[in-house]
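Bug report

Summary: structure tokens for NAD(P)-binding protein differ between web form and batch submission.
Environment: batch mode, default settings.
Steps: 1) Submit the sequence below via batch. 2) Compare with the web form result.

Sequence submitted:
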Amino acid sequence: MPSFSAVLAANKQNAPKAIRPVAVLVGGTSGCGRGVAEVLAKYAQGNAHIVLVGRSEEAANEIFASFPKPVDGAKYEFVKCDVSSMRNVGIVTRDLASRLDKINYLVLSTGLLSLAGRRPTEDGVDYKIAVHYYSRFKFAHDLAPLLEKASTAGEPTRVLTILDSFMGAPSGVRPDDMTLEKNYSLQNAALVATTYNDGAIAALAKRYPTVSFSHANPGIVNTNAHRDMPFGIKQLTGLVATLISSPITTCGENMVYTLFDPSIPTGAHYRTPKGEDVKGKPNLSDADIEKIWQHSIEICDGK
């Protein structure tokens, strides 16, 4: 397990220096995504094109104000998107595909904590799972050709989804109830989102073999993901997080360690908060992975 000082040293050494990386961070205006954005900007020293996709332009502008000044045509931009709607995600991915030449880093970290029951979206899936999984799949699926362009040029190309690389299991795949209409519970919703992320990166890695896909657990991080909780629980959750969690910048360094590490090959990877391979990860069968792929395409494709 690398120490945090070793992570910092590795990130400084492995940061891309000969290229201008393009980074798209979905959920990059808060929480872990913001931490990753700030760390990427720090190491790029103004020589990067960073796109933050989120809900709040005000938050994005506040983040950009803390970044190094962009140099020689580099830039920072905000794209507004309600990721619970696959139609809205499609609008954003088509826009990005029409004007970006490549993507080196795609970071997916949208999330929330909620005690609400199943809340169907316009796509017929639960709101929480839409945020934690379906939108992430659609961004990765739609933008994969831009990632391939970077890899074809010999540049680093990484997709990182940040959720829970420990919990996913084959029991999260219910062939007769993929959208959890029959078996919904908060626990099942969390298991499905995690398992589908596991399966999706394996399926995507198979179809895009020149791109590296990772699913990382960030550990306990002091974010505002509990913003939608009832007031009392939100206050308690915030207090506990303050006492035992790590800052978002620490999370950002640890996640960027996975993005920058040149020793990580292409394919699908499951990572700890420190950037190590998850041990004892339950493997999904090829049939489970294909079921997740086909279901995800049915929900997300053509939107």
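Above is the batch result. After comparison, the two runs are identical; trailing whitespace caused the diff. The longest strand covers residues 49-54. The two ends are 42 Å apart (CA to CA).
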